[in-house]
Amino acid sequence: MPDRAPQPVDRQLPTDEARDLISLVRDIAQREIVPSAAEEEDAGRFPREVFTLLSDSGLLGLPYDAEFGGGEQPYEVYLQVLEELAAARLTVGLGVSVHTLASYALATYGTKEQQAEHLPAMLGGGLLGAYCLSEPASGSDAASLRTKAVRDDGGTARSSEAESGGDWVITGTKAWITHGGIADFCTVMARTGEDGPRGITAFLVPGDAEGLSAAVPEKKMGLKGSPTAQVHLDGVRVPDARRIGDEGQGFAIALSALESGRLGIAACAIGVAQAALDEAVSYAAERRQFGKPIADFQGLRFMLADMATQIEAGRALYLAAARLRDAGLPFAKQAAMAKLHCTDTAMRVTTDAVQVLGGYGYTADFPAERYMREAKVLQIVEGTNQIQRMVIARHLAGPEER
Ligand SMILES: Cc1cc2nc3c(=O)[nH]c(=O)nc-3n(C[C@H](O)[C@H](O)[C@H](O)COP(=O)(O)OP(=O)(O)OC[C@H]3O[C@@H](n4cnc5c(N)ncnc54)[C@H](O)[C@@H]3O)c2cc1C
After folding, report:
1. Which domains does the chain have, with CATH numbers?
2. Does the pLDDT of residue 157 top 90, yes or no?
3. pLDDT tier at 238 (50, 70, 90 boundaries)?
4. Catalytic residue among 259, 382, 400, 401
5. 382 belongs to the catalytic site
6. Cα separation, 202 vs 274, whole angstroms
């Protein structure tokens, strides 16, 4: 009888170093992540020790420059690492993606002095980041955010980091923040000027800053191990040395970060979909009905074939976008397409995986139902799939008339 156990994904990787990296990640995933994933997701436990291990292993700053502690890997390699982590547990894959997103502003727009001071700890010193853009009243319309940062040059309680630029005092509420309440640093977009996108500035705020607090995490449908919480900033004082980029440049920085971040979500989605397919293939080989394995019924064989084909197409799409990025070419349209296609694929494939498992697929005894609940959130975060379609259409047909 042929061996029907799922084989590891055959990856096209550019270097031996990248192949070693994937082996390392598979090893960590099998030893440290997979065995406790179901139980911890059920209990809503965040695996902080796994992030410490990933940081110690050089896996929390993969796409950034080696000068400040990054792994200097191309995006096509970083994303395949993310895919492997997300297949093991989405809380980990998405967590690494969000940490990378939170580090982006400083790594890309910070001054050399800022980068030298903060990046080594962010990229390899065990710190965990949060990206704070959304607010209770501004999600898709992120440019309407209301959190305010006001200059305070005459304050007596200046931070020791303050330079001639004085301090900023930040007040407002951020919503839906991944790692809210546990992050060591927060990249916060706040209004420093006029209404709209041009009045927003980015700041690097310490997670333990006075006046910063987090609400009780949201009770979510899935991804329960990853805390998602409102973050309140109540007169949080930061020195001007923690402003990233120019005043008014924050929204452009936030969007630029999301362009790359969307590729991370696409890779995570393919990881979840692959895990669901592997589960479905294994189950179909074992489960017997009408005297033979259900994998022998054409109705299921075609379903598995469609699932696998959609996954391969998604992987090829996110890698094509990543390779454009690695070549220094524009990739925003392809990143939006990859996010849209890969997350819709994850939703379809995980739903089909539940179907392949029949009644057992609907129980928590198998991971298929968890994958299905996890896939849903990927159609929502970092720009809903409606917003991705708007981005793609803008590239095709220009901006909408107001
Ligand atoms: C688990 C989780 C983690 C998250 N993590 C973070 C994080 O770390 N940092 C962060 O800043 N944010 C985070 N978010 C927020 C996420 O980015 C927002 O939920 C998302 O951008 C949508 O915003 P909203 O929820 O306010 O929905 P809304 O913007 O209110 O949208 C509601 C519906 O209307 C649709 N819609 C809105 N505008 C249009 C339009 N112009 N055309 C067509 N349809 C439209 C949307 O697609 C959606 O279906 C997270 C969210 C979740 C659920």
Report:
1. 16-124 (1.10.540.10), 129-248 (2.40.110.10), 252-397 (1.20.140.10)
2. no
3. very high
4. 382
5. yes
6. 36
**Which is the closest atom of ligand 1 to the Cα of 98?**
8
| Predicted local confidence at residue 164, as pLDDT | 52
> 141 C-alpha vs ligand 1 centroid, how far in Å?
9
Tell whether the model's pLDDT for residue 268 goes beyond 60. Answer: yes
Taking residues 52-79, what's their average pLDDT? 97
Residues with CB under 6 A from ligand 1: 98, 131-134, 139-140, 176-178, 220, 223, 228, 377, 380-384, 386-387
Among 185, 378, 381, the mutation site with the greatest number of ligand 1 atoms within 8 A of its Cβ is 381
Probe residue for ligand 1, chosen from 135, 344, 377, 384 as the CB with the greatest number of ligand atoms within 8 Å: 384
What pLDDT score was predicted for residue 281? 98
Does the pLDDT of residue 155 top 70, yes or no?
no
Nearest atom, ligand 1, residue 142 CA: 21
Instruction: Say what percent of the chain tops pLDDT 90.
Output: 94
Residue 160 above 90 pLDDT?
no
Compute the average pLDDT of residues 305-309.
Answer: 98
Distance 304 CA to ligand 1 centre (A): 31
